[in-house]
TrEMBL record:
Regions crossing the membrane: none
Limits of the Fungal lipase-type domain: 110-261
Protein name as it appears in the record: Lipase family protein
Pfam families associated with the record: Lipase_3
Classification via Gene3D superfamilies: alpha/beta hydrolase
Organism: Shewanella corallii
Amino acid sequence: MDANLKNRLKGILSLAYQQDWNDESFSVGKAQVCAELSSIVYEDVQEYELKKASRIHLFASETYRSLIANHTVNSILDGLGEANLDARFFIVRGRYALVLGTILNDVVILAIRGTVFRELWDWKANIDAEKYYVYGSPHFHPFDYGYVRFDDQFFHRGFFESVIPQFASISDQIKKRQNSGNELKVVWTGHSLGGAMAAVGYAIHGARNTRIWLAEEIPGHAICAYTFGMPRYCGLGSVCNFPGPHHIYRKNDLVPTVPLRKMGFADSSKEYELTDTGTIGLTERTDTFGLAGHVPKLLSSIKAHSIEGYAELLALATGIGRP
């Protein structure tokens, strides 16, 4: 394993072990851990990606963009299982998603990014999004009002179809490495399109043990999700009925503004603005400028959207510095 990567992982794991993962509330420290792991998954570049680099991924990570420009294959994740580190790792390479699993005693962090096998990873698909409607049983709604059906209870079909098929492999990998008698706590995370897939994965995993069965059961309890600069991934009905992520965004980041609200897509119920000075707070987004308003914002958004920018500002927010 590359020495620099090993030292970075040591720093990330040290920070992760300092967090109270039993507390499911928002934590800037946990957000920093998740941002760093979400950054690392961009640094694994396979041969096919050099030939068919995703435009959205070139937009999402400075490191990924550099590797593609230099035609560099970088299979950094394959050697993590043999690394002498205070954690266990696994990789799930699906057709449409790459998942890095990090197991810390009884905590599992799943960091996700998309691959480049489909047209989903383009702006057109984010704007012209298909919907996958999901309805539950008559006891689906948590309040005792009988059967409540929401017309906008849907997920972005592309994100849904990309992450749900990975549940079986994720479950298998966790079971192979589970050696704690305590119930596992599972954290989902990702940036950009990976954040949207993490949000969908968390929603289905969190609802899986109580009221809905749409996928292979993943061991453990889905305690939270931290996403960064993610596009809208569902309608308001799904926001109301499924657990949602802590979504961290930057004001000049274009990606969280698509698909458009006028198409029925909604913001996450927990939105945190990360400022350029490193402050972070729960807010309500007000991007109402419409499709034409995206054009002048595009250039400033390229830098604002990078995962490295999110990681740097979160390090500033915690005062710890990047690993």
